[in-house]
Amino acid sequence: MENGSKFHLVTLGCPKNEVDSEKIAGTLFADGMESTDHPDDADLIVVNTCAFVEEAREESIETILSLAEFRNEKSKIVVTGCLAERYGGEIQDSLPEVDHVAGFGVPVSLSRKTDVPELDLLNLPRPASDKPWAYLKIAEGCDRACGYCSIPSFRGPQRSRSINAIIEEVEALQVKEVVLVAQDLAAYGRDQGVGQKSIIPLMEEIGEKVEWVRLLYLYPSELNTQLIEAISSSAVPYYDLSLQHVSSPLLRRMKRWGGDEKFRALISRIRESCPGAVFRSNFIVGYPGETEEDHDQLIDFVREMQLDWCGFFSFSDEQHTYASGLDGKVDRSLVLERLKELTSMQDEITSLKRDSLIGEKVSVLVDSRGVGRTYREAPEIDGIVSVPDSCKVGEFVDLIVNGAIGPDLETELL
Ligand code: SF4
Question: How far apart are CA 220 and CA 294, in angstroms?
Fold first, then answer.
């Protein structure tokens, strides 16, 4: 593409995709292109898709089709991301609207055509963030084999980036908060043979460059005393534990570690060593074989452990996964009933937790005019904090919580 031609980039899916998109944008800028918010004005339309579950795939295809309507005779559509990686052949065959399908590792550059050597998106440069925080992907792929998950089959085994490459990216981002993401974050570095828990020196080094380091997606068996202590000293005490369920037999069917007692002990240990710790977790509802007893056990856990944030997702039967061959499929209406019960219980817990902060002094990072976050809220995932308009964007400010509406907080100047 010529210098000055324009691209329109749409990102679907998880934070990891957002990082990829920023790298794609960085590459296109380096090629002399400009970004546009208007697809009808673009020479290149890039859709970074998600294929995690059926709804995500549908949304990706709908987005491609709706963007195709904005094409003019010279513009091209490129599809990248998980859908491209997993169903590239099918997209090429069934969507004539798409000019090029680029899996991971292939930069979306029409100036280089399709015979380019593969580059790893992971280590491509990225422009400075336009927000005071940024996601930072420290590894790609996953070495585990959770029964329901297709990610390892198309993202491949874990490939960790070097600490030096990550630190360079942190410096270029110029942010106050870095949110570390990977499929299996605490396993960072294991594939490089540099020893267990290399996430710790990485986190410490990033902690010297930015005010807040936040870790997302922690596999619970990885959280040993050493890592908990390191999080207390170098990161924000925000524990995003990937629990998925609490029933031991069901977790074994998921091919995952843990169980009710182990999880309770872990959370109590973290709370003892860090009373201000905030917890988020995700749970799958309706995994094949989930009994009424399993569900009741999860209900008791959620009620008693009082985690700050929880996401509940219905089981999605993914092709080529271990779970898709399992018996004991749970009826859809029962799954919805269980989801509703869990979600409404957790909404109440979250609201009460937020109410309990009223009257407290909090340090808030102002993300945009009138909106900020304390360490308790991960960006774009949890609630937000309304701040007075006079608070400067990109700065930390001490405020008093004077109200709470559901998951969100309201504040006033001290
Ligand atoms: S740890 Fe996460 S990405 Fe890896 S297999 Fe399990 S669910 Fe999938």
Answer: 19
- How is residue 143 annotated by DSSP? S
pLDDT tens digits, 329-360: 999 999 999 999 999 999 999 999 999 999 99
Same domain (yes/no): 324, 391: no
403: domain CATH number? 2.40.50.140
Q: Tell me how far the alpha carbon of residue 306 lies from the centroid of ligand 1, in angstroms.
A: 25
What's the total number of domains in the chain?
A: 3
**Residue 151, ligand 1, Cβ within 6 A:** yes
- pLDDT value at 275 more than 90: yes
What stretches of 274-318 show up as alpha helix (H) in DSSP?
A: 292-305
Q: What is the pLDDT of residues 191-209, one digit of tens each?
A: 987 666 799 999 999 999 9
Give dist(CA 286, CA 145) in Å, integer: 19
Shared-domain flag, residues 287 and 192: yes
> Probe ligand 1: pick from 16, 151, 219, 241, max atoms within 8 Å of CB?
151
- Secondary element (H or E) of residue 280: strand 278-285
pTM: 0.86
Pocket test of ligand 1: the residue of 146, 221, 256, 281 to mutate, having most ligand atoms within 8 Å of its CB, is: 146
**194 C-alpha vs ligand 1 centroid, how far in Å?**
22
> Is the pLDDT score of 374 beyond 70?
yes
